[in-house]
């Protein structure tokens, strides 16, 4: 009990006596201590609010230690004001000692954490890193665009390879059959005319045997070009066998199809006759219209039968089927 009474004893000589109770000195010391006390109370409150608002901070407890240090520093200044009129020097001394302890603890921890704090990237480093990441993202986006373009290009190439005859650059048998199915369905749905031609190069085996396969391949390419040159954009020509071609003619009746077949026959004969690099090539053509009950198989069979009639008539001829 005596210890507590002594601790709370304020009968020591007030600090004001040392200032001779001069108004100017009192204003300077009391005013300075009060302003410092207010500031030291506001700083811990700000630090506590910061720690509560930012739960992602790495050293939040260090901020709390610093807040405690500032608080006790403020308390010593408050006691300095009180001691101007009352001499609570025991309490003042205890608060100063506590301030010293928390100050030295804070200083030790600060030096302990200093390497980690220094390792935290600066604003400049963060901006540089962001710039690097932005550049890397841009390069990645450009690479993705190039890759997408390459994939599209490669996909188009694969699609072409899957649907195109490598030698003549015409559509292949599978694609020709697919187109024929579509056109038969369309013609039936729209009640439109549709004709096909079956073409077969005459004596092609003899050309291969006599002049070699390179000349034979050249003859196939020339035949393909002669067909394409005479067709419309809406027509189709495909290579469906060794020397066999199938031409699909949407919205074309049998008379116009027969006329077109005759032009193709003459075109091939005249071109190869005028060209000394290749033997004269002729073609037999069977023309058939699509009937209401036709499927792709029956229509091709109809044209094929007509083609063999042209061959039986001496080749290098166009033969048309009856409707």
TrEMBL record:
Protein name: diguanylate cyclase
Pfam families cross-referenced by the UniProt entry: ETR1_N, GGDEF
Record-level Gene Ontology MF annotations: diguanylate cyclase activity
Residue ranges constituting the GGDEF domain according to the UniProt record: 192-323
Species classification: Bacteria, Pseudomonadati, Pseudomonadota, Gammaproteobacteria, Chromatiales
Key word Membrane present: yes
Segments forming a coiled coil: 123-153
Transmembrane segments: 26-51, 63-82, 88-114
């Amino acid at each position: 009990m005596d210890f507590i009474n002594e601790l709370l004893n304020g009968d020591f000589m007030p600090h004001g006596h040392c200032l001779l109770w001069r108004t100017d000195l009192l204003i300077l010391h009391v005013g300075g201590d009060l302003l410092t006390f207010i500031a030291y109370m506001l700083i811990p409150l700000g630090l506590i609010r910061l720690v509560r608002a930012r739960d992602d901070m790495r050293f939040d407890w260090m901020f709390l230690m610093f807040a405690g240090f500032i608080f006790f520093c403020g308390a010593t200044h408050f006691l300095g004001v009180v001691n101007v009129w009352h001499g609570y020097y025991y309490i003042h001394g205890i608060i100063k000692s506590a301030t010293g302890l928390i100050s030295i603890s804070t200083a030790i921890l600060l030096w302990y954490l200093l390497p980690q704090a220094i390792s935290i990237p600066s604003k400049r480093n963060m901006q540089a890193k962001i710039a690097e990441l932005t550049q890397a993202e841009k390069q990645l986006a450009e690479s993705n665009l190039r890759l997408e373009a390459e994939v599209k290009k490669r996909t188009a190439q694969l699609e072409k390879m899957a649907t195109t005859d490598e030698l003549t650059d015409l559509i292949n048998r599978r694609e020709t059959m697919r187109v024929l199915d579509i056109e038969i369905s369309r013609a039936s749905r729209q009640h439109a005319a549709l004709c096909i031609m079956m073409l077969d190069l005459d004596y092609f085996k003899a050309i291969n045997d006599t002049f070699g396969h390179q000349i034979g391949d050249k003859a196939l390419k020339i035949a393909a070009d002669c067909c394409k040159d005479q067709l419309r954009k809406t027509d189709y020509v495909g290579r469906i066998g060794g020397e066999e071609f199938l031409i699909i003619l949407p919205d074309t009746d049998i008379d116009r199809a027969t006329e077109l077949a005759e032009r193709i026959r003459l075109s091939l004969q005249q071109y190869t006759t005028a060209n000394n690099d290749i033997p004269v090539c002729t073609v037999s053509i069977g023309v058939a219209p699509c009937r209401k009950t036709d499927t792709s198989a029956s229509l091709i069979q109809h044209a094929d039968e007509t083609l063999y009639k042209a061959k039986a008539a001496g080749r290098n001829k166009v033969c048309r089927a009856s409707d």
